[in-house]
Specification:
Blueprint (H helix, E strand, L loop, with lengths): L13 H10 L2 H27 L6 H26 L7 H28 L2 H43 L1
Length: 165
Amino acid sequence: MNDRDDTAGGRVPAQLDRLLAAEVSLRSRMRHVAVGLAGGAGAALLTVLWATEPRPLPVRTQAAFAGLIAVGLAWAAFAGWVLTRRRPLFARDRVIGARLALAVAVVTCGAGTALAAARSGAAQTLAAGMAGACLVTAAAVLLRRAGSRRRELLRLRDALRQDTD
């Protein structure tokens, strides 16, 4: 039994059908195509830049290149995963995307603050920490909203399934 044939007669109730249509709409898929292209193109550009830099590069510069390439590849892989799914994900993609954003924000905040502390004064370290904290907070809010949306969709799906049994 698939998610769209869960009622008597094989029809999805109109309320759930509207919500699921938004989940698999062309607009939603195009956003994921853009995310995948941006991540893949960013990773490719950074790889070419890294490969053409004069040697030897400092270890922290190599680590920065590797980290940024990994972030780009992670977003491209995430978009590829979403685009290969042929059925509604019930906002699972939003939760995974928000987790990825939170992880990247935490690492960026920590690395930026540590770099500022090592190379600059207290004011710059505080500024880097505050900017990073803003990014982490925004990503955490997005994760919370995505989780709420997913729970809402799953509750609606389960309630509609029970009504038809």
